[in-house]
Amino acid sequence: MEMIGSCLSMVVIYSLYFSTNAILVHKPPIIHTNHPYLNIYENSPIGTSFVVIEASSQTNDVVTVTPHDNATAARISLVPVKVGVNSTYMALTKLIPDRETERIWYLTFQAHDSHGDTLWTLPLHIDDVNDNAPFFVHDHFHAVFGFGLTVGTKALHVTALDVDEGPNAAITYSMKPHLVTHPSSRYNAFDIDPSTGDITLKEALQHGQSVYHYQVNATDGGIPQHVASALVDISILDFGVIG
Ligand SMILES: *[C@@H]1O[C@H](CO)[C@@H](O)[C@H](O)[C@H]1NC(C)=O
Ligand SMILES: *[C@@H]1O[C@H](CO)[C@@H](O)[C@H](O)[C@H]1NC(C)=O
Ligand SMILES: *[C@@H]1O[C@H](CO)[C@@H](O)[C@H](O)[C@H]1NC(C)=O
């Protein structure tokens, strides 16, 4: 009876000890900084500051904040402004962000004191800058038609792409005669749709001209704008004219 009693009290003391300890262990630091996400422009120089992280101890310990994983450590350095029970760190970039390579940096920071660790994950969105020019899918577009081509017919389609985003990737096409060796009026026979890149015959073909040479441009909507050029040749097989 006595033995059972002391055994029970030991169990009670034991579990009390552990539960008290467990309460102490579960008082990790608090991270006060709380953004669902933040933004930074691509090409921002190394050392750009984008957030201040504040963390405090619940147990009067010294709190430190560090990048939690290697991916975060590779991209961010944390500069301590104040380290103590309440600590403040400034987060600076260690790499130049490039939206075309990585649209979002998922960053995780860890606040640490002797009573535990707290993690905070911050998606850092990389905003677009117009740092890419459009490019045509071919340098040279070519089409061949018979003289019977009627006005309004879509003769050719040119396409340019731009890896930027939004207005920085919005392309406007333009076209004008290139390498003019014939009366210029005839060169205006074809016209381009600025938004689609469709090239159509807008006025009747005239005998005596077998190739229409044009330069086409693709211009993006960024500031400053970027331009790409390509060549368009439209050949007309005109069997109606001899000599
Ligand atoms: C993180 O970096 C450390 C030290 O540079 C290295 O030992 C470890 O293997 C890396 N971990 C991962 C998951 O890459
Ligand atoms: C830490 O910050 C809390 C809340 O702002 C404040 O009450 C406390 O006095 C600060 N402690 C120290 C050591 O600065
Ligand atoms: C294409 O762009 C170049 C350079 O900006 C310009 O000189 C040329 O006139 C443009 N051509 C067309 C068809 O818009």
From TrEMBL:
It is a single-pass membrane protein. One of its GO terms (biological process) is homophilic cell adhesion via plasma membrane adhesion molecules. It comes from the Eukaryota. One of its GO terms (molecular function) is calcium ion binding. Residues 1-22 form the signal peptide. One of its GO terms (cellular component) is plasma membrane. InterPro entries: Cadherin-like_dom, Cadherin-like_sf, Cadherin_CS, Protocadherin/Cadherin-CA. Pfam families: Cadherin. Keywords: Calcium, Glycoprotein, Membrane, Repeat, Signal, Transmembrane, Transmembrane helix. CDD domains: Cadherin_repeat. Its main location: membrane. The keyword Methyltransferase does not apply. Residues 98-136, 152-238 form the Cadherin domain. It is found in: Membrane. This is Cadherin domain-containing protein.
